[in-house]
Write a structure and sequence with these properties.
There is one protein chain. Helix 11 links the parallel strand 10 and strand 11. Strands 1, 2, 5, 6, 7 and 8 form a 6-stranded parallel beta sheet that branches. A 3-stranded parallel beta sheet has the order 9-10-11. Strands 3-4 form a two-stranded antiparallel ribbon. The chain contains 13 helices and 11 strands.
Length: about 375
């Protein structure tokens, strides 16, 4: 039975509280009452049982996490759990699943910050990436996942109820200066490529090292051109603002900045957060900024608040999920289990987002960019 406060025709659910006579503060106060009264479920399964409107809405949206290391994708020899089963349980359509190509030379310090510990040996990072590509092959086969490779594949996976991955790589250090390797990883199923990560890159400057290259380098521009030639999403996460400016000039397709958060105050040096202007630059390409499920949010409700704040800055067409699942070291993301996707959808509805806007935020915005980036066939 649906709680009367949570009924979709409740005027408090009007977009952003924009009904005459109802202020945003009143809406937020009312939402707090709803949470205290138990209207918001505690798990994805609870939300389906307690909210009669949840299931039909889930049937109509394509859920995509734009950045994830779930199930041990970055370094485990075997999957940590059945990722496909969790996605099926939560009706999550797709996950942009990836390894980070500089992992062999990075390590977390006692403060949980990622540090580059040494220079890689010749060929080391390419060998590591080859081993991870084989891991992805085994994961797809053993868990019954589908790869999204071309336009319409995400919609098809949703229609067929088959969980999918958009295979991705975080950082192009695997190239070791060899541009032809972009085509090689594409032939292995990669359709989403993040230019830089923590290790210094010959593609351009990252946010956590002192900038020395003025943003995007000529090789970085060449990699973007290769992404266009083969058909891959261009991801500028971890890049400095000058790098994103260069990428925006070079790219013919919308950019993705897959995982970050919009800073609410002056940026600290070497932070992974971005300014509103940084995010708006990505949005100006038609692109999408993914909000990560950082432990600093402390709860799923806090995470959804962060998504809503990003919408206020960038607009509902330019925000999505980029949880960085399993990417916070010993700290757990506030959203780790895709079985809880229905709860996230429910929380967005409680924030007052319309069904159409929920569809954009949970994955529709990414689907649009994916379809503009990858080929129609092949």
């Amino acid at each position: 039975m649906t709680c009367p406060h949570c009924h979709p025709e409740n005027p408090l659910r009007a977009k952003y509280g924009a009904r005459a006579g109802v202020t945003r503060r009143e809406v937020l106060a009312a939402l707090g009452v709803l949470a205290l009264s138990g209207c918001v479920a505690r798990t994805g399964g609870d939300s389906l049982e307690s909210d009669a409107d949840a299931a039909p809405l889930l049937d109509g949206v394509i859920g995509v996490d734009m950045h994830s290391h779930a199930a041990g994708a970055t370094g485990r020899r075997t999957p940590a759990y059945d990722l496909a089963a969790r996605m099926r349980s939560g009706r999550m359509t797709a996950v942009c699943l990836q390894h980070a190509s500089d992992v062999p030379v990075t390590k977390r310090d006692p403060q949980n910050r990622v540090r580059v510990m040494r220079e890689p040996e010749p060929g080391e990072l390419w060998r590591f990436t080859q081993s991870r590509l084989a891991w992805f092959d085994n994961l797809v086969k053993s868990q019954g996942l589908r790869r999204a490779l071309r336009q319409g594949d995400l919609e098809g996976a949703h229609r067929d109820g088959v969980p999918a991955i958009v295979q991705a790589i975080e950082g192009c250090q695997f190239m070791e200066g060899r541009l032809e390797r972009v085509g090689e990883v594409h032939s292995r199923g990669v359709r989403h490529l993040q230019l830089v990560h923590f290790m210094r890159s010959d593609l351009g400057d990252n946010q956590t090292e002192s900038p020395t290259q003025g943003g995007l380098t000529p090789l970085g521009r060449d990699v973007i051109a290769e992404c266009h030639r083969f058909g891959m999403v261009v991801d500028v996460a971890h890049g400095t603002l000058p790098l994103v400016e260069g990428a925006a000039r070079a790219s013919r397709t919308p950019l993705i900045l897959s995982h970050t958060n919009i800073a609410s105050r002056r940026l600290d040096p070497f932070t992974r957060l971005i300014s509103g202007d940084h995010g708006k630059l990505v949005a100006s390409t038609g692109g999408v900024v993914g909000i990560w499920a950082s432990p600093t949010f402390t709860s799923l409700g806090g995470y959804v608040d962060g998504v809503a704040r990003a919408v206020e800055t960038l607009g509902v067409d330019h925000v999505g999920f980029g949880t960085d699942n399993s990417g916070f070291g010993q700290s757990l993301a506030v959203w780790t289990d895709y079985a809880d996707f229905p709860l996230v959808v429910q929380l967005l509805r409680r924030k007052g987002f319309s069904a159409a806007d929920v569809g954009k935020l949970v994955g529709g915005n990414y689907v649009r960019v994916f379809n503009q980036s990858v080929p129609a066939s092949g």
